[in-house]
Amino acid sequence: MQVDHIDTPVKRYSSGMRMRLGFAVAAFLDTEIRFVDEVLAVGDAEFRRKCLGKMGSIANEGRTVLFVSHNMSAISNLCTRAILIDDGRCIQSGEPRDLIQVYLDRSAADSDEVETGVFDLTQRSNAYGNRELIVRKVELLDAEMRPSSCFEIGEKLFVRVHVDGMADTRGNTIGLIIKDNQDRWICDINNLMSCAGIKQPRSQREVATLEIDRLPLVPGSYPLAVSISTGGPNGRRDFVECAARIEVIDSDIYGSGASLGRSKGVTYLEGRWRIEGGDAATGCPGRRTAFASTCAAPGRRSVADTGR
Question: S-S: 42 plus which of 16, 77, 166, 197, CB 3.0-4.6 Å?
C-alpha cells in the first residue's frame, strides 16, 4: 500500500485498497491457519502476483492456507487439496485438477443459455465501482447474426455486449477475455486495442459488438469474461468472470482432413508450408525443385510425390 494513503480514513478507501490493507495485515500475523476469501477478485496484476507468492511461501512453511476462490488457475497452482461447495454444502473433495473439471462441468450444465448463445447477466452482484450492473447481456452470433454457442474452428463470430451506464464515466473501455477450462488467460481485446470508435452522442443503454473474422481456437469449451474499466489498478467498474461460454468444434480448417484435438494446444496457426530445394530456399542459383501442395485429393499424388 502506498504511503500517500496512510492518513486517509479507511471509510474513503476503494474496494481494492481495503483488500490490499486487509491482506497486508493478515499476511504478517503469526497464525497456523490462514483463511483467504476471494482476495484475488480485486486489485491489479502486481497485487495478485504478490498475494499468490505470499500464500505460497506460507504454505511452504508448513502452515495451512484455506483459500476460497473462483479463480481456477490460482487454485490449481496453490492448492494440494480442494473442496467443492454449493449452497453451503460440501459436494466433493479431492485433487484440485479433478475438482476444477467437476466445477466447470456443473457450471455449464446449470445454464440453459449455453444452448442458445444468449446470456442474461442481470441476476448477479457487482463488487466494483458503485456496484451497479453495467454489463446486462451477452450474445454470441454467427455470420448470419443468429444466436449460437457452438462454432467451428475458423468460423466468423460476433460477440454482442449490452451495457447500461457505461457512458456515465469518462474513459471507460470494454474488453473481452478468453480463458481455457483451467481458467488460464488465453487472450484479450478491448476497444482501445482495436481503435474502435464510440458513436456520439452517448446513450444510457448501448451495445458493443466485437467481430472476430476467424475464430482461432481449437475444439473445446471456453469461458468468456467481460470487463468495464477506466484503467489503473482500481479502475474496474464491472467485471463478469464467466459472462458466456463458447463451444468450439472441429472442422477441416486446412483442407487436408487433419483434425485438431484438445491435445493440439488452444489456438491454431493460419499458414502454408512451402518445401523447396536447398538452393532455392537460400536464394542461391541452381536447379529449383517443385514444392508440394497443401493437400492432394484422394487417389492423386502431389508434385513432390512424383519425384519431379
Answer: 16
CA 291, CA 44: separation in Å to the nearest integer? 50
pLDDT higher at 280 or 18: 18
Pick the CATH number of 3-79 from 2.60.40.10, 3.40.50.150, 3.40.50.300, 3.30.300.30: 3.40.50.300
Model confidence pLDDT, tens digit, residues 141-155: 999 999 998 898 999
Instruction: Look at residue 99 in the predicted model and tell me its pLDDT.
Output: 84
Q: What is the grid cell recorded at 63?
A: 502452515
Q: What is the per-residue pLDDT across 188-234, written as a single tens digit (0 to 9) for each? A: 999 988 877 677 778 889 999 999 999 999 888 899 999 999 876 67
Number of H helices, E strands in the chain: 6, 13
Distance between CA atoms of residues 129 and 213, nearest Å: 33
Check if the beta carbon of residue 132 is closer than 8 Å to that of residue 165: yes
**78, 153, 226, 247, 282 from 177: Cα distances, Å:** 23, 18, 6, 15, 41
Indicate where the chain has its CATH 2.70.50.60 domain(s). 113-249
Owner of C-alpha cell 484475488:
40
The C-alpha cell at 12 is 474513503
DSSP letters, 126-138, are --STTS---EEEE
CATH number assigned to the domain covering 113-249: 2.70.50.60
C-alpha–C-alpha distance, residues 56 and 50, integer Å: 10
Q: What is the pLDDT of residues 47-95, one digit of tens each?
A: 777 777 777 787 788 888 888 887 776 777 778 899 998 888 898 999 8
On whether the CB atoms of residues 37 and 65 are closer than 8 A, the answer is: no
CATH 3.40.50.300 segments of the chain: 3-79
Closest CA to 160 of 141, 134, 146, 177: 141
Note if the bond before 201 is cis, omega within 30 degrees.
yes
